[in-house]
Write a structure and sequence with these properties.
The structure holds 2 protein chains of 2 kinds. Chain A is mainly alpha-helical. Chain A is built from 15 helices and 3 strands. In chain B, a hairpin with a 6-residue loop joins strand 22 and strand 23.
Amino acid sequence: MIDRVINSRGFDSFDLRFIGLIVAILGVGVLSIYSVTHDQDAAFPFYAKQVVWILLGAVAFLVMWLSDYHRIARLAYPAYVIILVLLAVVLFEGKSSRGAQRWIPMGPFAFQPSEFAKLVLILTLAHYYSKAPRVGWLQRVVLPGVLVFPGLLLILKQPDLGSGLSFLAVYAAMLLMVGMRSKALGVILLFSLMLFPFAWEAMWGSLHDYQRQRIMAFVDPTYDTGGKGYHALQSRIAIGAGELTGKGLYGGTQSQLKFLPEGHTDFVFSVFAEEWGFLGVLALLLLFVALIWLSLEIVARAKDRLGALLAVGITCMLSFCIVVNIGMTAGMFPIVGIPLPLMSYGGSATVMTLASLGLLLNVKRRRLSFL
Amino acid sequence: MATAGLHDSELGELQRRLIILRVGLLLVVALLGLRLWHLQIREGLYYRDLSENNRTRSVIMEPARGLIYDRNGVLLANNVPSFTLYVSLEDVKDRNVLIDQLTNLVGLDPVFVRKKIMARGSKQLPRKVKDRLSLREATLIESHRLDMPGVMVQVESQRNYPGGVTASHLLGYVGEVSPEQLERPEFSDLHQGSIVGQYGVEKFFDRFVRGQAGQKSIEVDAVGHEKRTVVVEQPHAGDNLYLTIDVRLQKVAENLLGDESGAIVALDPRTGDVLAMASRPGFDPNILSRELTPKQWAEIVQNEGRPLNNRASQGQYPPGSVFKVMMAAAALETNTVTPATTIHCNGGYQFGRRLYHDWKAGGHGSVDLRRALVQSCDVYFYTVGQRMGIETMASFAHQFGLGEETEIELPSERIGIVPSAAWKLKAKNEPWLPGETISASIGQGYVNVTPLQMASLIGTVANDGVTFRPRLVQAVMDRATGELQERPTVPKRTLKLRPEILPLIKEALAGVVKEGTATRAKSALITIAGKTGTAQTTALGKDKKAEKDIPKKFRDHAWFVAFAPVDAPTIAVAVLGEHMGHGGSAAAPLAKELIETYVKLMPPLSASATNGIVARDGDVGGQGTR
């Protein structure tokens, strides 16, 4: 089956570029994780584990790529119910880490439902909007909101502010692309998006430290005032110290000397920036932009609403995570726990991202007819 | 499944809207790029500098130690804010200059400062140079900070003991962790300058009281001046302790000893709760918790009275006649005697070529077990001990908890000595001599006990044979959760005696106070039972001098153990007065005072007992001589 697809008309140069970009970014990620954890004294250090996650993710990618996305979309509602149950299970049974319960232990692994919830939410919303023409405010905005709400609530309860924000971002993107009637609203959104960093800086930057901490503590109980400030400072030092050309592999004193915590997860970008400098950062940004550009291409070429909606949801989710993660490591946003797609260490996140990208490529696949 | 055609217009609309995303994406990425350019190119040098010299200083934030209260919530140990001088060596250009500055400006001792600055240890962490700076010193340093890069004054909490000397042996004191301690695993999460308990409860419960240090990160500029501070981790204060002692009773116990050396222990035999534990002479933990000069240390350590010695749990003395309580139980259990067995005492016991004296010249005449205890007849117990043999005596002594730890939660408890043939061979490499059995039977010779063991022994008798492990900490309050965790009372063992034996002995001990050697312990408030003891310190020969003519340091130790009220005991007391002479005259009145205070403070449920007639107020008790 797979052979037939690849050899007939399933595979072209576009796919090759798309997959090539993914592999390149994954490679950079593993390299950075290796740089931070190569001295880890463990039988199975992080970078080795990450390779295993990538291989698992590759399987997920293939499955999502080579099935029919219409069939996958039909599973959206049941999948959403299952994920809600899992999120509830996490709250009561989950493995906690620093006061937040996010994992369901599964033998030697731990499974993080909130990561997968993002993909399931995209499926669910795309499925909903593609069903019949949606008219009226209620059907376009409120009902999908009702769909989003229980999942969002459970995720925030963990509390996992990062995943919660991604959830909201997906909902907002869907609204923007199909929910809003008038272009006027779209324009307003666009401007607010554009101005957001400046507005944020103006608002957030003018607050006193203690006021920020209070706000953060209110929004996210696990927000550790001291720890986050320290992270932010050390992360800024790491990035800035990279200068133009970087300090070279293993040259990052911030990460090597362990001044920078979480260098293999949420702050993997800081490690990369310290070691490869501004030039490396530009190259990496280029890779990410190219990947998103191709994703937008897929949206543009989608054959039907469902495909377009799936593709746009996935693209927006990835873009959001990439921008917010880099923005927080560079000290533009407050620190929320959002990993950098395809680069941060993490099993659930890696597998979920690759599965999403597989589904994205699936939308682009040329079909003979509807099966 | 809806066909695609149905929403073609909408699909087209969606795809047209992509332009928004494309523009938005490029804008945001451009912003990110700008920000990164700003960080890496424009401010790159600054950050590189910060990273290379890692210009963030980590400063340890010392935790506040947990508070210590007595059983009624009276504060015994807390913390007061004080200024501490730190020096961050990385920022010091010339150490000698700095030492001169601190000496000339602030008047610190140069030798002392040099020692602190030059000490081994991490260069990254600022060194603690001096704590408890006076306000004047702190302001002087702060006002000259610009001339002395690397110097920091931090506000920290210092251990403080509002009661001063009160209960000092129990509370102990704190001090900086020593380099040797830091090598040990239990101190692995500490650092140079950490404060740990060095004695008493402070030491034994250090893990609870210690708390957890925090850390802050200070960004400094090239000259080592603070620019901003980020708290990395807040320190966590230690847990609070609630002791079992009643500080009012404790103070009375300490005052009873006054200027004499000795110890008083009061337990609740039903639970093992330590109600009071006094040891004299004492020390002021406030002074010991500071940094002392070697000279000051030497003064305390070499002091004749050895104030740092907790005589209650670490002082070892021959028990004298108090030992007879255990002997009586052993004699009945082994059927060596029955309660009706009488032994004739004519004032001495001939064994081989030696005559072992009774303390009462002329002897007690014919005595049974009760009278032997009431009058503390030596000959009776010489005989009994001779019949039982040293091994039987030793095994019963162990049952009563002698020769082993009471397991009180204090560091360095001593166990005393229960002599036996095996012990002597091991300790002195000599065989056991029959005559030594005779000395041992009245608690002389090699037998050694601590006052705490004696309190536990009499408590066991009072509590019908059940020994509780002494409990010093009633509850621990977790600072994080505010939860009060009661610490368990632990029954350690039950004496294996026939049920009729202990009541007999208890009745005899009541007789000791009513009509025997301890009539001075008789109280109008409560019935008391007890046993006197007089422990010889040196053999003075038979030329009996009046006690006042014997130099103090050769006088006997005075013992008295007691419990009250007789029919349902709620308090067990052991009093030991070093070189205070006779138990009946010197120690018994103290025990009575203490028990009466206890009755006034915490009336036992059955405090209705009254004494009959007051017997003659005479001083009895004394010594058997070899």
